[in-house]
Amino acid sequence: MKKTIQRIALLALALLMAFSQTILAEPADNIKAIYDALVAEGSYFSDIAAIYAEYMEGAVLAAALEDDGITITFTIDDELYSSWHFVQDGDWLTAEMELDDTDGEDMAGMLLLASVSAHGSDPFLFDGYVSIHEELDGKYRVIEENGTEKKVSINIAGPYEYDLEEMNGMVITESYVRDGGRGPLGPDYFTGTVIYGKVSVEYIGNEDGAVFTVKEYGGLDDLALQGVISTVSVLQPAGWEDFVASYTELKDAQDVNYTARVNLEGAALTEVDNHPEDGYSYAFFTIGPVEQPAAPAAELGEPAYDDEIEAILSGMTLEEKVGQMMLVSFRAWKEVPEADGEGDATVENTEDETPAVNVTELNDPMRECFANYHFGGTVLFAQNCEDAEQVLRLVADMHAANRAGDGLPLLVAADQEGGTINRLGFGTAGPGNMALAATGDTENARMMAAIYGTEMSLLGINADFAPVMDVNSDPKNPVIGVRSFSDDAGVVSEFGGAFIDGLHSTGTIATIKHFPGHGNTDTDSHTGLPLIDRSYEELKALDLIPFQSAIDGGADMVMTAHIQFPQIETQTYTSVSTGEEICLPATMSRTILTDILRDDMGFTGVIVSDGLSMAAITDNFTDEDMLRLTINADVDMLILPDVWDSEQFRHVKDMTDLAVALVRDGQIDEARIDESVRRILTLKKKYGLLDETDFTVTDAQVEAAVLGVGSAEHRQAAWDIAERALTLVKNDGGAFPVRMQGGETALILFADSCASRAGTGELAVQRLAEQGALPDSAEITVMVNDAENGEDCINAANEADYVILVNRVYNAACLDPNTDDGFSTAVFDQIIEARHGLGKPVIVVSCQLPYDAARFTEADAILLTYGGGVMRAIPPTEGAGSAYAPNLAAGLCACFGMGGANGKLPVSLPVLNDDYSISNEILYAIEK
Fold this sequence. Notes:
Layout: H1 2-25, H2 31-39, H3 44-55, E1 59-65, E2 70-76, E3 79-89, E4 92-99, H4 104-119, E5 140-146, E6 149-155, H5 164-167, E7 177-178, E8 181-182, E9 189-195, E10 199-206, E11 209-217, H6 222-232, H7 240-254, E12 259-263, E13 268-272, E14 280-286, H8 307-314, H9 318-324, E15 326-328, E16 332-333, E17 357-358, H10 364-373, E18 377-380, H11 388-404, E19 411-414, E20 416-418, E21 421-422, H12 433-438, H13 442-458, E22 463-464, H14 489-504, E23 509-515, H15 536-541, H16 544-552, E24 557-560, E25 572-574, E26 581-583, H17 590-600, E27 606-608, H18 615-618, H19 623-632, E28 638-639, H20 646-664, H21 670-686, H22 699-708, H23 712-725, E29 727-731, E30 745-750, H24 758-770, E31 779-784, H25 790-799, E32 802-807, H26 824-837, E33 843-846, E34 861-864, H27 887-895, E35 909-912, E36 918-924
Parallel strand pairs: 12-14, 15-18, 15-28, 18-19, 19-22, 22-23, 23-24, 24-27, 30-31, 30-32, 32-33, 33-34
Antiparallel strand pairs: 1-2, 2-3, 3-4, 4-6, 5-6, 7-8, 9-10, 10-11, 11-14, 12-13, 16-17, 20-21, 25-26, 29-34, 35-36
């Protein structure tokens, strides 16, 4: 019975479509004329009646002319299942319905859909399941509702922008549904209603075209599908019977939900996509005959075919296409004379000590370069960022210069990871990734990334080279560390995915890095060429897990790592500086980027290289080989060497010209260039970048940027998250927090490795006083240990009632008291021993890598903050260097009872050997 009623519901929808079309096709005030048109041989009504009589035994669809209108009834074996009474009253079509288990909301949706489809109109907004008790733009109204009897009217008067003739030949408009909600349907759309929780029908139309979409929940049977298609046949009657057969064959073969796209003129099944896991399926129907060649199938690793993208690509010169692959970074400027053919300067002042000037605005050579080279994008660094208005105007000037040469809008990127990597230098730096994971709540990662994305968007920056998806499995890692969420792949996946979602929620492009993983290195690729001796299977078991998770979650960009993987990429190259044989790094490995990233992992987006001015590249490869190998490996966008002076500026232009020459010479296939440009354009289109035309900075934009970047709301959110991240790994005897009494003293002593953070100590004391967290007569002294004052520091610590030692580890040498980086740890050892001799406790605060928790095991309390960015003030003043990095300040305040320390350890902390090296034994295990 339920299936029968579902069929009736679909029938009702079909009848409404047919009836409304008849009324509109045969406008008349004489109800008899309408009735004659409705039941005439070959009418839609008669076709539907014949179909249901054939497919449902005992089913009869009948129409009768009454004194005041037309009644349509549907019976099965003489039992009445539905009754409809239609009356035309001027501009209104009124339907009185009696249909069990169908509410007025459903009927309103059906009538609305009937009206819109029949007119072929530019549809009005009907968002979701709007109550029928509302009135939208006078388009429909409720007359009466009583139990299962409904009476709803639609305005069928017009005027309408389109008619059916005009709509014929329009191309299909893409639409999709994800997670049960609509995708980006554009400004004009109409959504029908769910019928018995089984089927819903959408009409979507705008200036580009129109499409019917039928969504099903749990699958449709053949008869139900016929009813759906019959509603569409109002617009294009040919061919739906053939499609039913195609669907039946598909259903029998697959027995799962499906996606089918058909052209109703020929009823050809052109696309199938099964969705058994989410319970949705979609059927797309074109409005009229669409005469266009079938799009070629996308190759593996390639984005879907797109007419607009192909049109742009076909109109580009080789120089323009290569330019799209280049990301330029103008960091500073200094005039340097050109060299002669022998490489010597042509003038004697090459040793000019005039300092380079940070590029905060473009000069004429830079503008000319943008106009001539059609760069795909630019990367901003701290040297480019003074304050919000300046960055906003700099970005706009770059766009304008690029457009002056008919270039496409730029991808404007920055490494705004948060924490230690904060390229803006102002605004909200936030606590960093390891701190985010220490909160134990992925919502904090999502929130912080949304703050970054919001602030970047206000400045015109549309891409973030974040998040870091490296699993920090080597505690000696000198470059990743707290930039990683964790040494656990699952934690990195969860928090990295939330971070990506946060950026995407602001329309900011996320970039996962550094593929295939930079976490298991003890060499910084900025200064050397790391090597990871792991097999592909070992990478899949750890390092690749977060990347696969992010790719499956919709990541659009992946940044490569300049790292050798000799078990995976065996092709070698002779280093130009050492003459030694090295393996091609991942950035130049087609095995890693094409075979693994694209083919095995299914990534179809943009691959961007890490910076090509890093020593891992410049110390080992010629420009020609670097370009040839990188592009042929499947890198789409290359971060060209940073420009610090006019000589490097000329070098960047020469490299771009060289890339063009390599294509013309056949060393790089132009088809390979086209693949990259297609991906770049697809990415830009997805984020609306191709639509940008006017880059004039308005007063409103300036005001929004100044107020929004580093707003009080953002700062407070960052402080709260940093506070939630604070992790107390040890607290013997309740040493933490300090409860100062009137007249007591405390010493905050900074190691030499974090001397630049000492100002944060003063600011924390200021904040404690402002918040009333200290007695008026309590006194806190801030000192910094250096190579000359060790004895003074020890004496000051012995005299204080409370001591807090602030230490910073940024590499393994910081743990060893015999090194320049770690000499302060010897002083800290002596302070801990001396105070214990006096019966006094010591708190150690770690302000970067947490591995010093194993260095000071004798301390009474150890607090991890995972970051100690420098702040000039709390809250920071505006401008460069004012970034709000609250980790250390929040930690110091917590030491005095202002705030808690409830974070979870996101990495395991190893025991140190007797020589202060890191062992394989775990002292403190990760908390999940």
